[in-house]
Structures are given as structure tokens and as C-alpha cells.
Design goal:
Blueprint: E1 10-15, E2 18-24, E3 40-48, E4 57-58, E5 62-66, E6 75-80, E7 84-86, E8 91-98, E9 105-110, E10 113-119, E11 124-129, E12 135-143, E13 152-153, E14 157-162, E15 208-217, E16 223-224, E17 229-233, E18 262-266, E19 272-278, E20 289-295, E21 308-312, H1 315-324, H2 342-346, E22 355-358, E23 362-371
Parallel strand pairs: 7-14, 15-23
Antiparallel strand pairs: 1-2, 1-3, 3-4, 3-5, 6-8, 8-11, 9-10, 9-12, 12-13, 12-14, 15-16, 15-19, 17-18, 17-20, 20-21, 22-23
């Protein structure tokens, strides 16, 4: 900024003694966009060249710290607590950065509008937001990079925002717990990463999968429910369950001493639990699915089918996984599709997970459940 504002002419900007460029003054202001090719502490000055009326002048130096952005590639995926919400209702955005060692911040956007910035912790950055008007929000997560990892941006996720109504969420049907439920009351099952046995052995191979589940109270204005025990169990990439011995499971091999791909957590104050697992495979008679149980004030049952549901995957995703991604492709294509699965139909197609990510970096999905189940 040159004073008086009536001054005319041009300003040259310098980093030390190196010229960065020249800009013409307009209404007392000259502006130049520039960048730096290396990490440094830049010392920036602006030199007004003067005119027939006004003498030349030079600004005080302004220091800018320039840090290097890493060259190690990163990827960012975005999931949302719901893809259909109402005006003013809280929606949680979760960005997963791969590798999980990445540090720094993620900025969330609705189109080009920033919704806020969150700090990464263990590869995840979370932001709660809401929308002031009915719209189809187009959300992205932008990782700014660090001295080690390059910046990356997620694919866009759409959220349909409608005017507030009486119903705050879609109900989920209770369905059978299935034949492979195992009581997880033994110490060690309360865990986030369920890929291995409780002892840390027999880690299962497959595509990395982060499953976030939010639990809300359908009879109490959809308030977040804290301390709900959410149990998760599913088969491995070859369609085998741990914890049991059955002629219908893994060729009758005894897996009773193993506990991989089973576990539970208690929801936090926002109603959230998060599991690290793998994408399941399939076994004869069923499409690809995940079992979940909700032990809450509505239903504390540790067995039975009154508080259990099942989560499913898009059929196109399943087909691609089973034909082109190892180790799933070695198991081949399942003859039972979602449309032919009785439990999928009992859920009415309302529990299909929306995925973001890739087979190489892993997938993330966020699902909201409104208790009690119906």
C-alpha cells in the first residue's frame, strides 16, 4: 500500500535483493502473486519507484517462513455420518489420510466454501457441521500436506439437505444374528482394530476397511446415544468366521481358539464407534455382509435377534472385488447377489454402505443407526 493513495507508478517486490516482480499501483495499492521454490525464511520488501509528484519509498521487511512440502504421496478419503439430513442437524465429516502417519490438518469444503479445519490424529480428521438451507451439498476434504507427505484431496461426497421434518432418521430393521455369533464378554474384545486375534496373532489379510458407526436415539429427537455397546463380527476374505467349529464354516476346521474379525466398542459422547478391519468375503448361501449388535437402554440382549442388523456393500463393488482384487479373487464370484439375499431384502436395502477410498489405500464408510431397531 502506497500513501498518499493518489500516488501513481509501480512497485517492485523483493525477496532480499532478488526481484519477485513489478505491479502497477491502483488507488494506492499494488498486488503481486508469487511463490517460492525452496524452503526458507523470505524477507519481503516493496519498493515504490516514485513519480513526477511523489518521491520513492521502500517498505519495512516482512518475513515469511516457507516450509517444504513432502514428495511422498498421500491419499484422502471422506465419509459422512449421513448422506441425507435436515437443515440445522449436525453432520460429522471424517477424513482418512493414508498413510496414517501423515500429520497436519484437513480442511473440509462444501463446494468452494470452507466448513472448517481439523487436525489429523492417527490418520483421521473429524469435523461436525450443519447446513443452514436445503441443498445438495458437495463435500470434499483437502489434506494440506506436510514436510514428508504431499497434499491430496478426496472425491466429492453428496449430502441431501432438506427442510426440517418430524422424522429425524431412517429406521433400521432388526434381523437375525445368524449362526456364527460368539459371546464377546471375554477380556480383550473391547477394541477398535479387530483384524487379529485378541492376542495380536493371526492378522487377517484383505482390503483395509474403516467402519464408523453413529448411534442416535430415534425417540429422543435423534440425540447421540453414549455408552451403547456396538458388537461387530464378520467373515474373512475367504468366507470363514473365527470363534466357532461348524461343518458349514471353513470346511469344519476348529476355529474356536481364534477371535479375529470380532470385537465391540462403546459409543462416545457423539454416538460414534470406529472399527479397523478388512472388507469381508462371502460364503455359500449369503451375499457379502457385516453383523452388528446394539446393546442399549432399549435392548441389552447379548444374544438373539432383537437388537441385531446387518450391513451390506454395493453389488458393483462386490463384483469388482471378487474378480480383480486379491485375495478375494481367488475365492471367485458369489452366486448369491444382494437381490437374492433374504436378509438384504429384509433390511429393505437401507443398510448398504457408501464407500470412499480404493483397494490399495483402503476404504472408509460411515453409517448412522437410529435406535430402537424396528
Amino acid at each position: 500500500m502506497v500513501a498518499p493513495s493518489a500516488a501513481t507508478g509501480s512497485v517492485t517486490f523483493y525477496n532480499g535483493s532478488a526481484s519477485l516482480g513489478i505491479a502497477t499501483i491502483s488507488s494506492g495499492v499494488a498486488t503481486l502473486a508469487t511463490s517460492f521454490s525452496s524452503a526458507q525464511t523470505a524477507s519481503i520488501t516493496a519498493a515504490y519507484g516514485g513519480s513526477s509528484t511523489y518521491a520513492a519509498s521502500t517498505s519495512s521487511a516482512v518475513s515469511i517462513t516457507v516450509t517444504a512440502i513432502g514428495t511422498t504421496s498421500s491419499s484422502t478419503s471422506l465419509s459422512v455420518s449421513t448422506t441425507s439430513t435436515t437443515v440445522a442437524a449436525s453432520v460429522t465429516l471424517t477424513a482418512q489420510i493414508t498413510p496414517s502417519a501423515a500429520s497436519g490438518t484437513v480442511t473440509f469444503y462444501n463446494g468452494t466454501t470452507s466448513l472448517g479445519t481439523a487436525t489429523i490424529s492417527s490418520g483421521l480428521a473429524t469435523l461436525a457441521t450443519s447446513f443452514s438451507s436445503a441443498q445438495t451439498a458437495s463435500l470434499t476434504a483437502v489434506y494440506g500436506g506436510s514436510s514428508t507427505y504431499a497434499a491430496s484431496t478426496s472425491s466429492a461426497v453428496s449430502v441431501a439437505v432438506t427442510a426440517s421434518g418430524a422424522s429425524c432418521g431412517t429406521s433400521t430393521n432388526a434381523v437375525t444374528e445368524g449362526p456364527y455369533w460368539v459371546d464377546d464378554g471375554v477380556s480383550g474384545y473391547n477394541r477398535s482394530d479387530i483384524r487379529s486375534d485378541i492376542a495380536g496373532t493371526n492378522t487377517q489379510s484383505g482390503v483395509l476397511f474403516t467402519l464408523n458407526i453413529y448411534v442416535y436415539d430415534r425417540k429422543n429427537s435423534c440425540a447421540a446415544m453414549q455408552n451403547v455397546q456396538v458388537d461387530v463380527w464378520h467373515c474373512d476374505a475367504a468366507g470363514v468366521y473365527s470363534g466357532i467349529q461348524s461343518s458349514t464354516n471353513g470346511n469344519g476346521i476348529d476355529y474356536t481358539s481364534q477371535s479375529w474379525l470380532r470385537g465391540y466398542q462403546l459409543t462416545d459422547s457423539s454416538g460414534l464407534v470406529s472399527f479397523t478391519t478388512i472388507v469381508p468375503g462371502w460364503y455359500t448361501g449369503r451375499t457379502t455382509h457385516i453383523h452388528i449388535r446394539f446393546r442399549s437402554t432399549y435392548d441389552t440382549s447379548s444374544t438373539g435377534s432383537t437388537n441385531t442388523a446387518q450391513l451390506f456393500f454395493d453389488q458393483t463393488f462386490i463384483n469388482s472385488l471378487n474378480t480383480s482384487v486379491s485375495p478375494y479373487s481367488s475365492h471367485g464370484t458369489n452366486s448369491v447377489t444382494n437381490a437374492g439375499d433374504s436378509i438384504y431384502n429384509a433390511e429393505g436395502g437401507t443398510t448398504v454402505l457408501s464407500l470412499s477410498g480404493s483397494a490399495s489405500a483402503g476404504y472408509i464408510a460411515t453409517f448412522s443407526v437410529y435406535l430402537p431397531l424396528t
